[in-house]
Each structure stands twice: as C-alpha cells, then as structure tokens.
Amino acid sequence: MKTAAITLVAALFLTETSSAWQQWKELGPAPISNGEYTGRISAITCSPTDPDVYYVGGADGGVWKTTDGGSTWTPLTDQLPTTSIGSLALDPNDEQVVYAGTGEPNYANHSRYGLGIYKSTNGGATWQHLARQTFGGRCVSKIVVSPSNSQLVYASITRAGGFPELAAAKGHPGAEGPLGVFQSLDGGHSWTPLTNGLPALSASDLVMCPTNSLTLYAAIGRIFGDPGNGVYKTTDGGASWSKLAGGLPTTNVGRIAVAIAPSNANRLYAFITEESDANGGSASTLGAYRSNNAGTTWTSLPLGNIQSSFGWYLCVASVDPTEPDTAFFGGQVMSRTVNSGFSFQNATPPHVDIHALDWDASGRLLSGDDGGLHRSTNLGNSWESLNDGLGLIQFYAGISLHPQKRAFLIGGTQDNGSNRRTSNSLEWTQVFGADGGWTQVDPSNPDRLFVEFQGTGNLFRSENGGDSFFSSSSGIASFDRNCFLPPYLIDPSNPQRMLYGTQRIYESLNGGLSWSVKSGDLSNGSGAIRALAMAPSDPSVVYAATNDGNVLVSQDGGAVFDVILTDHPGWPRVTRELCVDPLDASTMYLATAAYETTQIRVTHDFGQTWTPLDDNFPDLPVNVLAVDSTSQPNSLYAGSDAGVFRSKDGGSTWHRYGEGLPRAPIIDLVLDLPRLRMVAATQGRGAWSVPISLEIKEDRKQTFPPTR
C-alpha cells in the first residue's frame, strides 16, 4: 500500500513532455449504426429560453453542449478530473451558470464514484471544481438552484453503486461519507447536511416547488431498502422535514423518483422501486403514485412493472411543463399517461433503459438512455436520434485489432453490442447485440473472429470478418458462474487452441467448435474469472484473476493453477488487469482498480515475489497495463480511471502520456507496435489512438504483432 498517496490534483500535472505528434486521436464510435446510438446519458438540462441549447451528461463521458438542437456537440469537461456525471442544473436566474454533479447515481457496477461538483459561469467554457472533499467517492443525484436566490443551492447525494455494494466506488476514501440532502448558501462552495427529520441515507431525487422555493421534496431511496426510505417534504427551505404518508408504501421500498408539475404545484408523482437483493435482483416496480394536494395524500396508479428486476438502475419521472395530467415514467421501457395516471401508453424511445428526462424551451421531450439522446415532438409517439458526434460509448475490456487492416477495430460495449470499425470514420457498425464483451481476432486468419454477450456460453464465431456469426460454445456449461462477460483467448502460436473462463477454464482445440473442461474452480467457491492472459513467448503459461480476489498462474496450459495473490481488489466485471511480458513468461504486470492500494506491481518469478511499481503513480484505480519490451528497460503504459500514463524506466517514474485524451476511465490498451501506435478503449468516451516511439535494442529487433 502506498505510504503517501499522490492525489489526482497532482496527477493533472504529471504530464510527460511530448512532441506534437503524441496527440491522441478519436476513433469513435460517434455514433453507432447510421447515427442511431451512442453511450449512456445520465443527465440532461435544457435552456429555458433557447430551444436549441441543451447540456447532457454521459455516464462516464463528461458534459456536452449543443447550440443547434443536437445537430452538433461540443465536449466541455474532457480535461477535468472525472468524466462521470450524475446531474446537471442551470441557474434559473442566469442560464450561463451551469452545475454538473459528478458520480453516476444509477448503482450499477459501471456507475462510477464522483469527485464533487463542477460549476461554470460562462455556459461551460470554463469550470470550477467544488466540493471535492465534501462529496468525493459518492454521487450527486440532483442539483436544484433556488430561483429566488442564486446562491442557494441544494444537492442530493447517494452512494456509488455496484454488486457487491460499493463496487463502483473502487475503494475511494470518501465512498462511505455522508449522504442525504445538502444545502449551499454560497453558490456551491460550501455545503451543510440537512438532517432535521431527513435520514442520512442515499437521496435518489430532489425537486423544488415551482411557486415557493422554500418547499422541496426529497426521495430517500436506498436501493437495498431501509425503514427511512420514502418521500420527504420541507416548507422552510430544508430547516426541517417530514415524511409523507397518506397512501405511499412503507415496506419493501427501494429507489424512488419524484416529479412535480411545473404548471400545478399541488400535483406530484412518485415512482417507487422494490428493494434490491444483495445481487441486484428483485427490484421490480413497486408502484406509481399521484398526489393532488402537495403530498398530503396519494393515489396508486396502474403502471405495472416497467423496470424488469433492476429498478435500482433505471427510475425517473417527469411531468409535461404545461399539462399536469401528462407524465412520463422511465424504467427499462417508458410509459406515458395523459390523464393523470388513470391509464398508460408505451412511449419507449429507440433504445431501452431510461435514465434522464427533460423538456426543451419549445416543449419537446428529451430522453437520455443506454443508447444516448433521443427527442420527441409528439409526447413519445415517435423519436429522433441526436447522437451524431456524441462520443459517449462505454467499451468493455477486450477490444481487438486486425493484423493487416489499420482501420479495423472491433469491441464490445455496454448495452450497445459488439461493434466494428472498417474505415477512418467515427461511425461504427453493430455486428452483434446486447452487452458486447471480449473480442478476439485470429492473427493467422483475421476473417475468423469472436464476439460474446453477457452470460456463460454466449460466444459466437464469424468466418467472414464479422458479417455473420454462429454459436461457438458447445461443451460450455450454461450454469457455470460468470463475471457478466467471460474472458477468452486464442493461442497466438496455435490459433485452433482457445481458452474460456467461467469459474473454471475450458479449452478448445478446434477453433471454438467444441470445448472441454480444463481446470477446477479457480475462485473461492462463489466467484468467477474476470481476467485471463497467456504468455506470448510460452502459451503453456496462463495467468488468471477472479472477481473474488484470487490471482493465479498455470504452467501446464491451464489445467493446474497456483494461487499467487489473494484478496486482490478490483472491478467485478471482465478486466485486462494482467499483462505478461511478451519475451518472458515469468514476468507479469498486475493492475489494481482501487484507491489506496498498490495499483501497479510486477513479478519476475511466476508470482512468488512482487515488486510495487507505483511509488510515483497518482492514487488512481488502474484498470489495464501494456508493456513495450522492445526497449530496455521495458516501457510500461497504465490505463487508469483518469487517462493513460507511461513509464520509460520500467515503472520507477510515471507521466501522463500524450495530449488530448479525455480523463475518462481506460478499460483496455492494445500496443500496435508494427504501426507505431497504441489504441485505448475508454468506458465513456469511445476508442482513441496515439503514436508511440520505439527504441529497439539490437538483440530485440524482430517483428512484433499487436500485443494483446
């Protein structure tokens, strides 16, 4: 563990002196499939006067602005400390004042922690970073600015998400800090918790009365349930609160969304989810409720279950600005009522999983979902995509390159399938659906490639470069445990040999046509393999990491493994935390995706001993490592939760590498040595590439394929 953590502020200045050619280039997707989709949008706010001005927040993509109604977009926060956005608000007295609450309050494993609040006084051109110590490690679910006093600001604060609980916080030292509703009297610079009658639990929503700024409604919605969950009201600006009853449920209450009609201050709607179990299940819709008397009594509405079993992830409500009887409820799908909840119609945009709703100055409805931003001019009867140029895709680990075609990339993405790039455009084409995971391209026959979607055994093979696919999982037991997206490998020395990881290793000797069990359970009895790496110089050496903390090595091709680390923290889903030296199978570099721990280390003896390599590295979770072994000592690259760093001296000192890369989480790195470049896959800002320089020693001159 580090004895003196280097803060992220310091990390902003750890920038390697670079020439102009070390400029990162965006590769997309922006967007997918003819402009239809991009990555998840978690927040929207619109100008109250100009129908063409919107701000949107990507789940891990930062704040973006359009001034032409979504035809073009500009990223505003790429170089700020985090790109994880949970809420947006404009000052009703001065719409040049913009607040962005960081940390995505949607509770998934990929809903990352925040680092406070950003504030701009010039429409997003420049920003102040506020409340970092106050709210760091948690998420800002809503920001409300008083129309009667611009210095009076309220914020609702939640835990970061994940299963197990707080997995998305990655051990941030502020992750278990204070929760609830906070008040600022100085425009967001300092904050006071409001606790008189209001529980210090995750506050999932917050709204202000449109006619009386002293009246607010707060939704306390801890997703795992709590007796304190419910809707609370203050009539004195937050000095005291009372819990509303009068027909609202009192048991089995999880996440809550609350909405107030702008045209009728007495009309409220509440959207309530059942409490989640420890694994993220059981969170169906508990109910929707309407109040006609400012929350005194409530009527249950016949909404039905629109959240499947994961309402902790998607729970939002909004009321038409001029029609209090017209309201929208967003879950996995979206429902609309035009008669105050007596009946509902489907109003789902082109992509499911709704996270944010807002109305522009001309009364058009905007939906932020897992496919980006969609707009309706007719209350959800039809929708248009506004995703051209909006680069918010969240890749998962396992992006792949083509050995001959420079433009070709393929990678799996969060809820947007597996996507392929075949030209120098930002537009990619979806080749497979659902959540796309690990990919592999046969280096000897690149028309043969593999994709997957979530779950065990959902592996598919193409023989024509990704134009069509067929199942490639015969022999893999569907009941095996998985880390949502199982990792798998092609042996670089024998492409007919493949490995696949559940809680155990499977092997194929016929290119994935059939599989047989190779190893026993590598976890502690309830986990699964989240990372696999094969030594390029000796494919009989295989390293593995499980999502319950084991790091292991096999020297017989994957049959027998020795545990070389336990209690190794990190992200529970598929990762690339293992990086084997291309020339030395006994040398493996290990990344740790957590705060306040050893984030980079190396073994030179198959894991018998370890050496930390992060003394000069900022205290940031590291998700992936890549090694350039053409030089001596090795040059190392680290993909962190806030960009890419390089060490030219084997890990003794580190510097931020290149210019222009957003400070988004880096989930994968691929060194493409023949083309003198590196490709980075982010979780929130798509894929990027940067030139690299090689200083090849005489005894190491050879042909180097892209390093996986």
Question: How would you describe this structure to a colleague?
Answer:
This protein has 708 residues and is mainly β. The strands form 14 sheets. Strands 1-56-55-54 form a 4-stranded antiparallel sheet, with no helix packed on it. A 4-stranded antiparallel sheet has the order 2-3-4-5, with no helix packed on it. Strands 6-7-8-9 form a 4-stranded antiparallel sheet. The longest helix has 4 residues, at 8-11. It is globular.
Radius of gyration (CA) equals 25 Å
Shape: globular
The major beta sheet can be summarized as: 4 strands, antiparallel
Distance between termini? 28 Å
Strand segment count? 56
Low-confidence stretches: 3-13
Mean pLDDT: 95
Strand content range: 35-45%
Q: What percent of the residues sit in helical stretches (DSSP H or I)?
A: under 10%
State the helix count.
2
Taking strands numbered 1, 2, ... along the chain, how are they ordered across the largest sheet?
1-56-55-54
Q: Helix/strand/pairing class, anyone?
A: mainly beta
